[in-house]
Amino acid sequence: MTQLATSPPAGALLRTWRQRRRLSQLDLSCQAGVSTRHLSFLETGRARPTREMLLRLAEELEIPLRARNELLLSAGFAPAYAERPLDDPAMAPVREALDLVLAGYEPHPAVVIDRTWHLVAANRSVALLLDGAAEWLLRPPVNVLRLSLHPEGMAPRIANLTQWRTHVLHRLGREAAGTGDPGLAALHRELAALPGGRGGSPADGIVVPLRIRHGDGELAFLSTVTTFGTAVDVTAAELSIEAFLPADRHTAAVLRALTDPSTGGAP
To answer: Which residue intervals define the domain HTH cro/C1-type in the entry (predicted)?
Structure first.
């Protein structure tokens, strides 16, 4: 009852998400197949939305599942999407899929993160990136962005730190603005205050590699992100797998050597 009493009306939430997506009422009404007048009445509270209308508009606005539930609750409807903890028996297929993907990426480092950038799982190769990080940054819950940019984390080993933190902060800032999540906005402010500089540009103008000092040289990685594209559970929808693939042959050779029994696990 407290949540319903303190949450904004459904119309106000719809207007906020529409503006967040930089759409006019005309744009959204055309996409959703409703009249601009009716959409205006929904946003101002002059008309009460149906459950089906809210879900249709949420789909057009690409509202995250968690926020869709909040939208439905604000209008007096039950949530449409379950939110099960990852250790729930019903989530066993998700856990198995995550384990298989993480193992499949080896010897390339890969992590599973949630919507707040906290570490959920990782494969064994991630240890290569964490060498020298302070123990307190590795205690759960581990925030992977804080770990990467903190002076006691990975930052001293990142050869292109200015470029990398510019990329990370830009990505995080877009997520905070696109979701309206105050936690992400607070994390962005925290990380932006750390030393390391801003404004670096990609060396090739296409992607930003992660360059890690390793021994007497460097390892270069390109990151890729995988998500559950058809998730209908809030927890599953908010998980993503970020893998770090070799950006050059030297890095690929080092990673292979780390898992080659003939080398004793050392490059």
So the answer is: 14-68
